[in-house]
């Protein structure tokens, strides 16, 4: 073996010193969850600054030729509090400030470590310590020492992605405060007894500091709060500042700037209040400030006892498959979903090739296939065998699966159901030519539409990955208690109990399986619009079945809300009675005749005139602009109610947010049906297993943009299959014995299942709150709450959001 000094001299030109802006991955392996804390430590390439676990560093060396790596091992220091408390979770001070990582705010756990570093030269793994460098030539000693120091001093990528300190109470002076215009309209505000001038609401009352108008505040996601009258007043007048009347004290008050869209400071607040007869020095606080409201919400979400199984002593668990995942900032939705997915054998055993940009300084390094087996937490290299369960921090994984996505690339809270479908979509995209773990969830749905006038039927099939189960609130078994509690609340009874609706699971399944009435169905048999019924059944049963409880809906006033329901979800499920039967003996099919064209041939299609006010109202509710345009167009400008009904009926459409395309127009902006598409893009999509015709259709539908075309093609798999598939579900190629066209393959078997996991949501909206999951392991229910993993004593199976079943072997 060559002298280590000579070897180091030979690779000196490849050793770099980190510069400002270089991304140093020194906390986590680029290809797994390995970190310096794990056995074997982490190897940081001294050229690209990518980190690799001991099981991957040789592969990186073989692929790139890089030889010099900084080997980092880290040992956690024992905290005094860990010694004094058996649980490792001492009582924490109640937060008094809306902040993170500063005095009075929410505590951020900061671990202390002892680190050991040395240079390792591959392939022989020759080691060089800092002491060894002192005996080497100055040019070697200087370059290597600077590189080592630079790597250790640099902020890691994971550090820059995390919020270490944040103060939500630091407010800026409003730009409107100094020169605020106040009207001399004679308005004087009493010191108490305020009501909204529009709706008489007595809580969450704000006064506009320009004209003294007293109005209610914003409506919250759960329907409480106000009726948005203060906001509407700003939109009509442009008067920017408002003060929350119940928060005025001699020390200040809550002031909001609608123009700046934030809580602000008003240095002239005493003067502005005096203009309307309010003496700030005599006022007392009668309502919680916005900061106090936010602290209360965050504290409820963050407390282990309140989130789940309150009042129960939970026994921490450790070992293979029982490793928690750190919350990276509203990443509990990802943690809960991935913990469940990696109990599915298909995902445990699969290396899924996520092929992304291969570059030494790519924002998300993925030079090799991402080995999903390393994410199952079953490897001794990955397990955190530390008695107080630190958990793993999936920064690289989160960055990888969220890259380029407008929501999942952020630190905002997300819908677990949407993330699950997004992840399955990524797996589908990258497993066209090999084993595909998402097949465990994939199944076919048969839709049977029967024209009520001709009694002829039409059969179609589509691919799905989960069952969305409706919640029939009118089937509650405790209706009397619900009505009584509602009556007491309306009468102002503060002691009125909170009653949760009890919904039978059988009622949910009945609502799913009952025929849907289609009142505007165009029948090819009678050549006219008529009434039809649509029945949905399983054309195949997957190995693993996901059921989503549709808890998130809209009230009568179109305000998003979460249904507070308890559903007796069973441990075992038999769906055999919902299997599709296909065309019945003697049943006639609707003829394949296209409906009459809505556009006269050779006549230029002009853009429709849409009701801007209806479009604006829909957008204000949070729906995508293009979806709002389509809702108004397809309901003929008949008003907000009709448009809202259209949106509710089409929210699950794959092209819900796609641009409005008029009949007779091109399939996408900037393209025509005959416009040529990029041969390079065609080749890329065809290489993924799709036909040339399918690739062409996807590119024309997305203006020849490759990334959008790939997303489009995976959102329209059922449409693409119908290009070659007949009503009977078999293609002409299959009937003639040829190879079938590429497309989704489904597994099938008995429709009997057992519950093995469920994901629960706490909060009033999918965009806030907290997720945890329960998984059944060795006949024991286990609760995963981010990095905390414990034996579950009272699994709340009736309060879940996503339920996961696996087929029972007969």
From TrEMBL:
Substrate binds at residues 206, 218-221, 256, 258, 261. The keyword Metal-binding applies. Its EC number is 3.4.19.12. Residues 733-747 have a biased composition (Basic and acidic residues). GO terms for biological process: protein deubiquitination; proteolysis. PROSITE patterns: UBA (PS50030), USP_1 (PS00972), USP_2 (PS00973), USP_3 (PS50235), ZF_UBP (PS50271). Residues 76-96, 725-747 are annotated as: Disordered. SUPFAM superfamilies: Cysteine proteinases (SSF54001), RING/U-box (SSF57850), UBA-like (SSF46934). It is an enzyme of class 3 (hydrolase). One of its GO terms (molecular function) is cysteine-type deubiquitinase activity. The keyword Zinc-finger applies. It holds the Pfam family zf-UBP_var. Keywords: Hydrolase, Metal-binding, Protease, Repeat, Thiol protease, Ubl conjugation pathway, Zinc, Zinc-finger. This is Ubiquitin carboxyl-terminal hydrolase. It comes from Scophthalmus maximus (Turbot). The lineage of its organism: Eukaryota, Metazoa, Chordata, Craniata, Vertebrata. The gene is usp5.
